[in-house]
Amino acid sequence: MDADPNRSIRKICIVGGGTAGWMAAALMAEHFKGAMGQIELVESDDIGTIGVGESTVPPFLQLLAKLGVDEQVFVRKVQASFKLGIEFRDWKQKGERYFHPFGTIGAPVDLADFYQLWLKAKAHGYTGALQDFAPAAVMAKNGKFTLPFKAARTPIGGASYALHVDAKRVARFLRTYAEARGVTRTEGIVDDVAVRPDGFVETLILKNGRTVEADFFIDCSGFRSLLIGKALGVGYEDWSHWLLCDRAIAVQTENVGAPAPYTMAEAQDFGWRWRIPLQHRTGNGYVFCSKYLSDDEATATLMSQVEGAPVVKPMVVPFKTGMRERLWDKNVLALGLAGGFIEPLESTAIHLIYRGMDFFFRLLPDRDCDPALQTEYNRRMRTDYEEIRDFIVLHYCTTERDDTAFWRECRDMELPPGLKRKIDLFRVNGSLAEGLDELFRAVSWQSVMEGMGVHPRGYHPLVDRIPFDGVSGQLDHASELLRRMVGDLPTHAQFIAQHCAAEMPEKAA
Question: Terminus of the chain with fewer CB atoms < 10 Å: N or C?
Fold first, then answer.
């Protein structure tokens, strides 16, 4: 039986702007092409956005492509820089560092993943580092950058990249995009929400007396969670027993030197510090556990370590890691902070917004919002949230630090069952239980496991079918070839200057 056209959604209302709201608006404007109902976004200039989500992961570039946005134009407009991965300092032990690269490490050999070949070589005395074979890691180490697809048939072609962005400029860019395609913006603060007898949201009542009706609502109201939390009463699942940090201090500073093509995450006594270099400034923050540190102490610690003069005052961002029990309930879908928050260690907040909209399009409802659609959406999104949660917990629980109560608590925590299974499996021979369409694939898990000292006891037996004579020499040759190729690339700063330098910054960020 064909769908009843009289039940089609005629209007969708987005509550809240910022990155989440305007990303949802832009994606719907592009997908619906003006032919599937009205899109209205309600926000207020009087309510600020957090605007500190400045780092992305490679699928963000898929979002730009889906919107038909020219990447170079976008980089200029939002003063972006390029990101080849994350450098972790002092996580395993003080004084140690490792790199989590985007893209590949080496190339498969016969039936074996490159990591398995490296494990066998290491068992036979090979001393070369795993990241010597990751093109993104080698580029980052040397401050170099090129677009990997420009060198697709070379060892560099296996790299991948994301962007460091100015979150507020991203929201403005997406707003301009969405409004040019028919999205209506309404200025106003939501004062009350009218709910029908069946529990569906019917009307928003704004403080100025205006009412806004819609068939479907997307809650992008941030931590306030006006619709999914307050109006519909969907509970929040707290993950703070696994992720102890619950506050962040954020500050922007002037650049000192050329921007590095990677994010820096440096462990501190009671959390960790980020540094995210853009073209014209650097984002900094201290993510910490308030059980062990006050806001004033965290601010003082951060300000003593940042490079460059501050361009804004430090901002306190309290948060609780976790997610809503349901991200889609009745005719309300929650995106961004309204639906959940996993701390920013692996820069996944914007990705989860994009994924949330992707699954929404796949399961697009009519006005009845069939519960089967909601159930499948919530199942898929929970899988994403839990995958990312477990990957981030991995960075903490495998620490060997015992110099503060914070790190001892991280080291001794009871792990999520799925993460424990994954670590136990990896310790056998480097095997990984990968799920469906995961964000973090084998290279990510291998890089963090190795960086944090989680080593397999052996290697996969299939590697023994590969003739091993001369492998160590071949590995040395491959790493040297990659190093020489990277040496010939432009620096990160040179690449930006040649291809996508931003206009001079506006005085008001």
Answer: N
